[in-house]
Amino acid sequence: MQTYILLMKLTEQGIKDIKNAPKRLELATQSLEAIGGKMIGFYAVMGEYDYVVIGEVPSDEVGMRFLLGLGVLGNVRTTTLTAFTREEFVRIVEKMP
Fold first, then answer.
1. CB 24: neighbour CB atoms within 10 A?
2. What's the pLDDT at 59?
3. What is the CATH classification number for the domain harbouring 33?
4. In whole angstroms, what is the distance from residue 48 CA to residue 28 CA?
5. What is the domain range of residue 47?
6. What is the pLDDT of residue 65?
7. Which residues, 6 or more positions from 52, have their beta carbon under 8 angstroms from its beta carbon?
8. pTM value?
9. Angle at Cα 39 formed by Cα 36 and Cα 44, nearest 5°?
10. Could you give the 3-state DSSP secondary structure of residue 84?
């Protein structure tokens, strides 16, 4: 599974309909699980971003499909970071010449 960190900003549409955000979050979680992914964590944050999500997907293609689906809805814009666990990082570094 590939891990991603999503930094999300509400669009004007998303903030105008903020009362339905919990329902949208539940639908997004179900959609992610339906394609074989998993939400590890969700945080509403203050600052430059509105939400931070940590999730896993089986492949980059599945992750892209999920992100495109979020974008089409028009409530959030995402910045996506590929994340590596501590163990993955150590293995990568150990293989350096």
1. 16
2. 94
3. 3.30.70.920
4. 22
5. 2-94
6. 94
7. 5, 6, 7, 8, 41, 42, 43, 45
8. 0.89
9. 150
10. coil
Per the CB < 8 A criterion, the answer to whether 16 and 77 are in contact is: no
* Model pLDDT, residue 22: 97
Taking CB atoms within 8 Å and a gap of at least 24, the contacts of 77-80 are 77/8, 77/9, 77/11, 78/6, 78/7, 78/8, 78/9, 79/6, 79/7, 79/8, 79/49, 80/4, 80/5, 80/6, 80/7
Q: What is the C-alpha to C-alpha distance for residues 6 and 41, in angstroms, rounded to an integer?
A: 10
The tokens of 28 are what? 């997004």
In the numeric block, the tokens 């430059």 are attached to 48
**Largest Cα–Cα distance in the chain?**
53
CB count within 10 Å of CB 17 equals 15
**Which of the residues in the chain have pLDDT under 50?**
none
Tally the domains of the chain.
Answer: 1
Q: Where are the alpha helices (DSSP H) in the chain?
A: 12-16, 21-34, 60-73, 86-94
